[in-house]
Structures are given as structure tokens and as C-alpha cells.
Design goal:
Layout (H helix, E strand, L loop, with lengths): L2 H17 L1 H22 L5 H26 L6 H30 L12 H76 L4 H18 L8 E2 H18 L6 E4 L8 E2 L3 H12 E2 L7 E8 L2 E10 L8 H16 L3 E7 L4 E9 L2
Parallel strand pairs: 2-5
Antiparallel strand pairs: 1-3, 4-6, 5-6, 6-8, 7-8
Length: about 350
């Protein structure tokens, strides 16, 4: 065995004694106390080997009853009534057999000269039965003490977890309040720039105004709402189109069709906005002969949203599929079978999207 292996073994032994030091101390005090009391009462003391043999049996009975018999017998509530008595009877029987065997060994193979003889009568069996029940009662108290300490630890852990959750919620609320302050500071700054620029540079001022409205909608609008009016989405899309028209000097070829009564229809937020944003990001919208289209209509108690746009010659599909799949999952989660969502690129290189939602 190498020196490192010996050190590891010694460390394990030392750790075990450290963990069990209370048990070792308790049993040492109990054995010395009981041995002295009994020795004084009967007027004689047994040999060391006798003490070692029989206290080893009693200590083993103590832990076996606590960790095996009670743990297994009390595991299922509806089976306790028959398992516990049966296991205790078996345990008593095994204890009696082991006691007889140990008595035989002590009497015949040690220097024992005490009064105990192997005479199988009531008095002979009464002592070990009493002794077994004595240690089993201590073991039962030990078992319930362990369970009590374990349950208390669980309660303490749950309380710590609850306090940690409260602290995390407080931190989240604080971060949320900070996050609210920062966008509003930005909106106030944009409003100042808009007011300053609307006379000297009306085009730039209009772009700033559209951008501010879009950002305000994304940050402040629709909080904690599952559904919004389609009117809000339409206004957002018109701001988006206006911003891109200003950027491209009004060369964007996009037709936006809808009837005014459709504004009162409710829908989940940002669906229409994301569809139009994808058109600007991934589509070719500057060709007059191939204008893009967005149409909203109601037919047969169904809201129908369609988009169509020419794809770019050099395709950049980064984020397109993930954006479409995100919309699809949100629709499935909210509407289930009451919504149909499809998209594809046709033979003329037009990317088309159709969304059909049944209106309740």
C-alpha cells in the first residue's frame, strides 16, 4: 500500500470517528454506567470479553431496529398495522437465537465463571426478551428523533428558500423600476430633439417622432395584456412604414390595405408588427413593378392577414425562420386550432404569409 493510499485510509477513518463522535461518547458513557450499576447491584463484574460480546449485540440491535425495521415497517401507512408487529416478533426471535449462541460461546470458550447456565426455562428467556425490548424502545425514540430533526431541517431549508425568493423578487422589482426609468429618459430626450428639429428639419423630426412612438409602443404598451386591439398594431405598422419611407426618400413600394371596422378586432400583441418588420428586413421593397402588400380583412367570421413581398436577390434569412416559428408557437399557444399560420416562397420569388384566426 502506497503512502498516499495509507493517508487516504487514515483520513477516512478519522472522518468517520469525527462524524460518529457523539454516538461513540454516548455508548461509552452508557456502557460504563450500566456495567458499574449492575456490577454493584449483583456484587460481581463480568469479564471484558463478555461485555464486548453482549454490548456489540445490543448496539447492533439498536441500530438495526432504528434504521432497518422501523424504516421499512413504517414506510407505507396502510401496511404498518401488520408489518411492524411481524418484524418486531422476527427481530425478538433472532435476538433470542443470537443470545443463546453467544451464551454458549461465553460459557464454553471464555474464562466465564458466572451464574448463567444453559437451562431453557421461562427465566432464561425472560432476561434476553426484556433486554431486546429495552434497546428497541431506545431505538424507537432515536428513530423518531432523527425524523423530527430531518423534518425540521426541511422546514428550515424551505424557509431559507422562501426568504431567498423574497429577496430575488425585491431585486427583480428594483431592476424593473430602473428599467422603466431608463426608457422614459430616452423618450423625453427624443421628444426634446423632435421639438428642436421640427422647424429646421421637418423630415428628421418626423423620423424621430415615428421612432419614439414605435419604441414607446414596444416598451410601455400592452403590458400584462394577452390581447390588444388591432388598431394599436395598425398604428405601429404605419409608424414603421413612415420611418422606412423617410429613410428611403419615399421609394418604398408597400401597399397597406384594411377597413376601418377591423381596428376593433382583438389579437395578441406584435404579430402584425413582426410580420411587417420581416418584410423590411428580408424583402425587396424598392422595385416599383413588384410592390409588397399587406392586407387585413374579415371573411366568414375570420380575421385574415396576408403579406406578400419580393425576396432580395442576395438572400439574408438570418432570423427569418426563428421569427416565423416564434409567431407560430405563440399562435398555437393562444388560439390552438382556431388559428392557421403558413408561409412560403413561390416560383416568382415572392415570400407570402397567410394568417387566419377565427373570431369569437
Amino acid at each position: 500500500m502506497t503512502l498516499i493510499a495509507k493517508k487516504n485510509k487514515l483520513h477516512k477513518i478519522s472522518t468517520w470517528f469525527s462524524d460518529k463522535r457523539l454516538h461513540i461518547l454516548g455508548w461509552t458513557i452508557f456502557i460504563f454506567y450500566e456495567a458499574i450499576i449492575i456490577g454493584i447491584f449483583v456484587g460481581r463484574f463480568s469479564t471484558l470479553s463478555t461485555y464486548v460480546i453482549f454490548y456489540s449485540l445490543n448496539i447492533a440491535t439498536f441500530y438495526f431496529h432504528a434504521h432497518v425495521v422501523l424504516a421499512f415497517a413504517l414506510k407505507k401507512i396502510n401496511e404498518r398495522w401488520w408489518k411492524l408487529p411481524l418484524f418486531i416478533l422476527i427481530e425478538l426471535g433472532v435476538y433470542l437465537i443470537l443470545t443463546v449462541c453467544l451464551d454458549y460461546i461465553v460459557i464454553n470458550y471464555t474464562d466465564y465463571n458466572g451464574p448463567i447456565k444453559l437451562i431453557f426455562n421461562a427465566a432464561f428467556f425472560a432476561a434476553p426478551i426484556y433486554r431486546a425490548i429495552y434497546f428497541m424502545c431506545f431505538a424507537t425514540s432515536y428513530y423518531f428523533l432523527l425524523n423530527f430533526l430531518e423534518e425540521r431541517k426541511k422546514i428550515e431549508d424551505l424557509e431559507k428558500q422562501r426568504l431567498n425568493n423574497i429577496i430575488q423578487i425585491a431585486k427583480s422589482e428594483n431592476a424593473f423600476l430602473k428599467a422603466q426609468i431608463q426608457p422614459h429618459l430616452l423618450f423625453n430626450t427624443l421628444d426634446f430633439i423632435y421639438q428642436s428639429a421640427k422647424d429646421s428639419s421637418p423630415v428628421a423630426a418626423e423620423a424621430i417622432h415615428s421612432l419614439a412612438e414605435m419604441m414607446r409602443y414596444s416598451v410601455d404598451g400592452n403590458k400584462d395584456k394577452e390581447f390588444i386591439l388591432l388598431n394599436d398594431e395598425i398604428n405601429q405598422v404605419e409608424n414603421l412604414i413612415n420611418l422606412h419611407q423617410l429613410r428611403k426618400d419615399h421609394h418604398v413600394q408597400l401597399r397597406f390595405w384594411y377597413d376601418d371596422e377591423i381596428r376593433n378586432v382583438k389579437i395578441i400583441p406584435l404579430v402584425l408588427t413582426i410580420l411587417v418588420e420581416n418584410m423590411f428586413k428580408h424583402g425587396e421593397l424598392l422595385t416599383a413593378s413588384h410592390p409588397a402588400e399587406v392586407s387585413l380583412r374579415i371573411e366568414h367570421n375570420q380575421l385574415i392577414i396576408e403579406t406578400s413581398n419580393l425576396t432580395k436577390a442576395v438572400k439574408d434569412n438570418s432570423g427569418l425562420s426563428s421569427g416565423m416559428e416564434n409567431i407560430k408557437k405563440r399562435l398555437e399557444y393562444t388560439y390552438g386550432k382556431n388559428a392557421e399560420f403558413s408561409y412560403f416562397t413561390d416560383s416568382n420569388q415572392y415570400f407570402k404569409v397567410m394568417l387566419v384566426i377565427k373570431i369569437k
